[in-house]
Amino acid sequence: MKMITTTISRTRTGQKAARTVKRRYAHNRIALLFLAPWLVGLVLLTLGPMLTSLYISFTNYTILNPPVWVGLQNYITMFTGDPLFIKSLKVTFTYVGVSVPVKLIFALLVAMLLNRGIRGLGIYRTIYYIPTLLGGSVAIAMLWRKMLGGDGLLNGLLAMIGIKAPDWVANPNYALYSIVLLSVWQFGSSMIIFLAGLKQIPPEYDEAAAVDGAGAVRRFFHITLPILSPVIFFNLVMQLITSFQSFTQAFIISNGSGGPVNSTLMYSLYLYKKGFAFFQMGYASAMAWVLVILIGLFTLLVFRSSKLWVHYEDGGK
Amino acid sequence: MMIGQRSSTAWIVMKHLVISGIAFVMLYPVLWMFGSSFKPGHLIFSEIWFWPSEWNWGNYRSGWEGIQGNPFARFLLNSIVLSLGAVLGNVISCSMAAYAFARLDFRFKAFGFALMLMTIMLPHHVTLIPQYILFNHLEWINTYLPLIVPKWLATDAFFIFLMVQFFRGLPKELDEAATIDGCGPVRIYLRIIVPLAFPALVTTMIFTFLWTWDDFFSQLIYLSDVSKYTVPLGLRLFLDSSSQSDWGPMFAMSVLSLIPCFIIFIVCQKYFVEGIATSGLKG
């Protein structure tokens, strides 16, 4: 087939085209050398394991004994016979559903405060980024646990104004929200992306609208938001994907248990417990695939909805 | 007109007050931890103001002695070795792959590139268990190999993408001139691309370092001997032995564990802001 095309192009467009065809893939061998580490990793650590985990997800596997084929059993058990799995779904949806919008709104508000040629922008940006810089660490998660604990900093402050508050991380009604707060606290990178987006908006737009008598609120909803919508879209997708996989904070704050009363049993945490505490590798693999499908569905949903609310200045082309 | 009015001094002062107020509230937990690390145990939870009424290095001394017979310096050293191995691996393997994608002409390039992009979005949970089984077969559990070797095999495809974008921005005329002078792809990569792509390489190094330094999940799974523990796992030991008096040393070592991130951030700020603003790197 390739020879035929080569001949045709040679006859059709003559010498020049023939040379291009011959010169195509000039670097096959040397490229293989450059790509070798990546290729080995792709096959041995990504594609191979993906296929394996798909297979394992249809088996009972404890690492000690060979896998036993059980068909769809793991997937069926998840949705019909495992209340903890359903609980972990609820916890994760609540976490994602609250933390992502609140974080993005907060990031946008602060970015707008910082946008208008304020002095010391660099310093403020640095300070606001610090939580994002440190927030993923075990150290901060432990601080959080202590800060929101019964005798922690927050309750100390509340006691000063006479409020007797509960132990936030030990109370099943609030424990998850203490993790939400920790996530919202790290709004720095979203804010930096918003700031970069806001810089692209020509101030003349705003000025013209102001001259025409549009108030600040109207200008925000009719100028800033539409122009910024691609950036919001980008931030939303990124935050959605990472929030679904959140692990460390819930693990540290609940000391690995997902408690109290499973109120912080995030999906990743439950998957970890199934795979590495109970060694139900088959079930954990099935959970991993359900997670992929969930994230895929939500991302798709956001992409689909984007036609309704994301405006591209060049008309989307 | 209205915009002009808004720039009155009162407005500007107000704005600065609001912004620095929010900043102070946000940073307060970190300040409080820093202050608490110098407070004796009984004061940590009775004092709300972060500034210690008396400075006391005792927490640092007892935290540094470590836990379960392992000095904290060992956890630090383990983390440093691990992070350096990961940083080197990522920079070398990802820049090689990125060079091929950005500059070389080979078969299945578009397909390979699409495959690479797909792996960026893939949750690591899917490969987690088979990888564990593989490393278990190789008897790599409880060593640093499962944490370092994948970096040398460019599994953090995000950085390949980052570098491809950067390499594509470098003038192609340089490559062409070098080719005329008789340079092959290997020398072009080493002598032209790598030096010119320094900012992209630094961004990769910074984020690989931070992510490895803070990584908890894979270190938790693969390391079991306390003597091999890294800083995140070591810190967690303080939490396990959770008698009230241990919070001081724990805060002290927490502060210590955050210092490397802080220094890198201050020194390399430019790369942070650019890396995040241009490619959406999550810190």
TrEMBL record, chain A:
Residue ranges crossing the lipid bilayer per the database entry: 30-56, 93-114, 126-144, 174-198, 219-241, 276-303
UniProt entry keywords in alphabetical sequence: Cell membrane, Membrane, Sugar transport, Transmembrane, Transmembrane helix, Transport
Pfam families noted in UniProt: BPD_transp_1
InterPro entries reported for this sequence: ABC_transporter_permease, MetI-like, MetI-like_sf
Keyword Transmembrane: yes
The organism's place on the tree of life at top rank: Bacteria
Residue ranges annotated for the ABC transmembrane type-1 domain, each copy included: 89-302
Membrane topology: Multi-pass membrane protein
Coiled-coil spans in chain: none
Main location: membrane
Localization: Cell membrane
Family label: Belongs to the binding-protein-dependent transport system permease family.
Stated name of the protein: Multiple sugar transport system permease protein
Organism per entry: Paenibacillus hunanensis
Automatic annotation (TrEMBL), chain B:
Subcellular location: Cell membrane
Keyword Membrane: yes
Organism: Paenibacillus hunanensis
InterPro entries the record matches: MetI-like (IPR000515), MetI-like_sf (IPR035906)
Family: Belongs to the binding-protein-dependent transport system permease family.
Main location: membrane
Pfam families: BPD_transp_1 (PF00528)
Signal peptide range in chain numbering: none
UniProtKB keywords: Cell membrane, Membrane, Sugar transport, Transmembrane, Transmembrane helix, Transport
Regions crossing the membrane: 12-34, 80-101, 113-135, 147-167, 188-213, 247-268
PANTHER family noted in UniProt: ABC TRANSPORTER PERMEASE PROTEIN MG189-RELATED-RELATED, ABC TRANSPORTER PERMEASE PROTEIN YESQ-RELATED
Domain ABC transmembrane type-1 stretches: 76-268
Domain of life of the source: Bacteria
Protein name: Multiple sugar transport system permease protein
Topology class, membrane: Multi-pass membrane protein
